[in-house]
Design goal:
single chain; alpha/beta; Collagenase (Catalytic Domain); two-stranded antiparallel ribbon; 7 helices; 11% strand
Length: 318
């Protein structure tokens, strides 16, 4: 009897174990897999010699304007100095400073001029708003300020045959928008002259306006009309015994062709900078348009040649 009980007890234990094992196997089949059981696919790196990853192209950023509110000036330094005179502006007028920053930023980007060569005269030239000021009056104003401030006149001109050179430029910048009708965008008192005026009209506020007037002081003539260039060059030949330094605009190097504007101020934008395919124009043409302007290689080389030959400031490239 005891043997039969032991036999049945062993059978019962075996059945119990088999039942428990089946439940366990069923549970493991229904249970969702854990992270250790899941296949994690990591994108492989480009194999050696395979195609490179596409380049990261940065978004275009707006050009930073130079800070012009704290420009410094040291008299007697052997360099070209450009003095900027506020006309009908307060010296710290934000609009005036913004215009100056545009002018200087363009000149620095397009030529070998540096920020240290510009200085804002801290006195306003009040000319009124009824007529265009003579650029020589602006020059006299700057010279008077220089003498009162430093006890020195602006450096005297030097003559090279009949051609004058100056180590300074004086540019008046006017707020008067009505100046456009009678003054144009701006003017320089003479080819090779040190004094210029920039009005307050729309075209005068373009970044390239200052560089156009400075170009005249280096012997460059207007390029927006074939006849205007020819007349200016002939006058220079009589007065200074030299022609215009820049090449005449024609049908090959400009949008002007060989046409004359007669009494019109400007009949075309001017010469290409540097080829027609560049889709840009030289600053010695008619400024203020919506096209792209540059200081052409020709103009840049002529300006550097002037600096080296007559101011003994050499070795500076664009």
């Amino acid at each position: 009897m005891r043997g039969q009980l032991s036999f049945y007890l062993i059978i019962a234990v075996i059945v119990l174990l088999v039942t428990m094992l089946g439940s366990y196997l069923s549970f493991t089949k229904m249970r969702p897999p854990t992270i250790s059981q899941t296949e994690i696919v990591i994108p492989p790196e480009s194999p050696p010699g395979g195609p490179p990853s596409p380049p990261v192209i940065p978004l275009p950023q707006e050009k930073q304007k130079p800070i012009v509110s704290n420009l410094k000036y040291v008299p007697g330094v052997n360099r070209l100095q450009v003095f900027l005179v506020p006309i009908n502006y307060e010296v710290n007028d934000p609009e005036f400073l913004d215009r100056v920053a545009d002018y200087i930023g363009f000149a620095m980007e397009e030529s070998n001029l540096t920020l240290g060569q510009f200085y804002i005269i801290p006195e306003a030239f009040d000319h009124g708003r009824s007529a265009c000021p003579d650029a020589n009056l602006i020059l006299s104003f700057a010279d008077d300020w220089h003498q009162r401030t430093y006890g020195l006149a602006l450096p005297a001109r030097e003559m090279h045959g009949k051609v004058p050179s100056h180590r300074h430029r004086v540019v008046g910048i006017d707020s008067w928008q009505g100046a456009l009708a009678s003054c144009g965008c701006g003017y320089t008192n003479d080819i090779y002259g040190p004094a210029s005026y920039i009005g307050g009209g729309k075209c005068s506020r373009k970044p390239e306006a200052l560089s156009h007037e400075l170009g005249h002081s280096f012997g460059l003539c207007d390029e927006y009309d074939t006849c205007t260039w020819e007349q200016t060059s002939a006058a220079l030949q009589r007065l200074r015994n030299v022609p215009c330094m820049n090449v005449r605009p024609d049908e090959n190097n400009s949008i002007c062709g060989n046409n004359c504007c007669s009494n019109v101020t400007a009949c075309c934008i001017g010469k290409y900078a540097d080829t027609k395919e560049d889709n840009a124009y030289n600053v010695m043409g008619a400024v203020g348009s919506t096209v792209t302007y540059h200081i052409s290689n020709e103009s840049g080389i002529l300006m550097a040649r002037y600096m080296c030959r007559w101011l003994q400031i050499c070795g500076v490239t664009r």
